[in-house]
């Protein structure tokens, strides 16, 4: 009988480094919404990928940033930091050519979490030459000396097969937690609300208040069409 492996991986980083895009590409389908507006992700989103004898449970988290001021920032930070507890692996996503104080703060939180770490240098599809990554990789090796470092492009999938192989090596032996064809534990209503929020965020951008929420009033799935009524709050 084939030995099964199942475990949790937290995907963390500051806002707008490509965490949700990375999750969607790893799953092979859209789950987490994306936009250029910081902190588009409001909740910890569980993505499930089952491949052969491994079930990988990815937790996409809100971007971690300066929690001063807005209560929503503090809430989102708590959500992201809680995801790093009791996971089998942390994927720390950074922009390959932009390092900020927020990245350094996340790196310290990642180090304190104590789980194995893979640092993902994202957006390498925009590289002119691979050598430009060397200073950033040296910096990350100093900050997180026990972490693996992998350049990827979440947008077009470069090197994500290598990332998946690394994730598999950290999955402990255990039975699957979910059905093999399941890709999230979220309800259809939640996913619909997120898609609506994504569309209005992309259309309105900075004009949209951070406190905006979507409430699904009605969801009727008929033979050829879905009838959805949503409130924008």
Topology of this protein?
Elements: E1 5-12, H1 19-27, E2 45-51, E3 54-60, H2 71-83, E4 89-95, H3 101-113, E5 117-122, H4 134-143, E6 148-151, H5 160-169, H6 188-204, E7 214-221, E8 226-232
Parallel strand pairs: 1-3, 1-4, 4-5, 5-6
Antiparallel strand pairs: 2-3, 7-8
In short:
It is built from 6 helices and 8 strands. The chain has helices spanning 19-27, 71-83, 101-113, 134-143, 160-169, 188-204; strands at residues 5-12, 45-51, 54-60, 89-95, 117-122, 148-151, 214-221, 226-232.
Q: Your description of this structure?
A:
- The mean pLDDT is 89.
- Helices cover 31% and strands 23% of the residues.
- The chain has helices at 19-27, 71-83, 101-113, 134-143, 160-169, 188-204, and strands at residues 5-12, 45-51, 54-60, 89-95, 117-122, 148-151, 214-221, 226-232.
- It has two domains: 5-169, 3-Layer(aba) Sandwich (Rossmann fold); 188-232, no CATH class.
- The chain starts with a strand and ends with a strand.
- With 233 residues, the protein is an alpha/beta fold.
- The protein has a six-stranded mixed sheet, sandwiched between helices. Strands 7-8 form a two-stranded antiparallel sheet.
């Amino acid at each position: 009988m084939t030995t099964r492996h199942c475990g949790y991986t937290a995907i963390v980083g500051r806002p707008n480094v490509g965490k949700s895009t990375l999750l969607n590409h790893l799953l092979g389908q859209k789950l987490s919404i994306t936009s250029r507006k910081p902190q588009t992700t409001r909740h910890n989103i569980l993505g499930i990928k089952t491949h052969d004898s491994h079930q990988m449970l990815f937790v996409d988290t809100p971007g971690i940033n300066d929690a001063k001021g807005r209560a929503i920032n503090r809430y989102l930070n708590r959500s992201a930091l809680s995801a790093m507890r009791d996971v089998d692996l942390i994927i720390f996503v950074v922009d390959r050519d932009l390092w900020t104080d927020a990245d350094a703060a996340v790196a310290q939180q990642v180090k304190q979490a104590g789980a194995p770490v893979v640092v993902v240098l994202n957006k390498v599809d925009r590289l002119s030459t691979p050598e430009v990554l060397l200073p950033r990789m040296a910096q990350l090796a100093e900050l997180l000396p026990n972490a693996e470092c992998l350049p990827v492009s979440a947008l077009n999938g470069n090197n994500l097969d290598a990332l998946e192989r690394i994730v598999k090596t950290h999955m402990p032996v255990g039975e699957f937690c979910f059905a093999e064809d399941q890709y999230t534990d979220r309800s259809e209503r939640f996913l619909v609300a997120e898609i609506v929020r994504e569309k209005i965020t992309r259309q309105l951008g900075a004009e949209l208040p951070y406190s905006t929420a979507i409430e699904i009033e009605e969801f009727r799935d008929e033979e050829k069409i879905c009838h959805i009524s949503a409130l924008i709050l």
